[in-house]
Design goal:
CATH class: Alpha Beta
Distance between the termini: 32 Å
Largest sheet: 6 strands, parallel
Radius of gyration: 17 Å
Shape: globular
CATH topology: Rossmann fold
Structural class: alpha/beta
Length: 239
């Protein structure tokens, strides 16, 4: 994909949930392609990437998201790409989840994407177009036992971005849902799983998902990928 990524040189991208896992893998791939970065995470980690702007950001707070976008635009002059990646999970029967877990998944996975879009999309439109990429999940298109609230948050995320695709296509903004199956990161363990949980066997890597994100970003501007689902070979296609 080296040739394709040359077209990203000089662009500016915002990545949320950027301190580890998929977000960090995407940020590093973008940096390798010559993209300037605004990185959002609660820790404010810049991953050691030259020129990256990384104010501490909790996507549950719209004021912090606004500040992240403003800092990236102030540092780099414009914004071309948004990767809304921040997310949390909790697993187990619905009636056994604490109210705090319910609220956290909705606040981070759904509201966090809404706040990110609201803050960033005006800049993509002003730039004449760009890419808004939402890191969702196969749990945003298929229902699974033990993931009812996570499903709700991700179904909402996918539906929101599908609607944005319809609203913004004519303004040159491509809105994409990237929906991976199991990915072996800290996030995969969430609450209700441990490192020896059988669900973690054979999962994809964060770099595998970053590759798909880069594929979406490097398609010709004459086409767009709206919702892309993919799974490791070890994982069934149920649901």
């Amino acid at each position: 994909m080296t040739g394709a990524t040359e077209g990203l040189t000089g662009k500016v991208a915002l990545v949320t949930g950027a301190s580890r896992g998929i977000g960090a893998a995407v940020a590093r791939r973008l940096a390798e392609a010559g993209v300037a970065l605004g990185l959002g995470s609660r820790s404010g980690d810049d991953l050691g990437l030259a020129g990256a702007v990384a104010p501490p950001t909790d996507v549950r707070d719209p004021a912090q998201v606004d500040a992240l976008v403003a800092a990236a635009v102030a540092a780099h002059g414009h914004l071309d790409i948004v990767v809304a990646n921040a997310g949390v999970g909790a697993y187990g029967p619905f009636l056994e989840l604490d109210p705090e877990q319910l609220e956290r998944m909705i606040d981070v996975n759904l509201k966090g994407v809404l706040y990110t879009a609201r803050a960033a999309l005006p800049h993509l439109i002003e730039a004449g177009g760009g890419d808004f990429v939402s890191l969702a999940s196969v749990a945003g298109v298929n229902a699974f036992p033990g993931e009812a609230v996570y499903n709700a948050s991700k179904f909402g995320q996918v539906g929101f971005v599908r609607s944005l695709d319809i609203e913004l296509r004519e303004q040159g903004v491509r809105c994409s849902n990237i929906c991976p199956g199991g990915v072996a990161t800290d996030f995969a363990m969430g609450t209700g799983r441990s490192e020896d949980s059988p669900e973690l066997e054979g999962m994809m890597s964060a770099d595998d998902v970053a590759e798909v994100v880069m594929f979406a970003l490097t398609r010709p501007r004459s086409l767009r990928l709206m919702t892309t689902t993919f799974r490791p070979m070890s994982e069934g296609s149920w649901g």
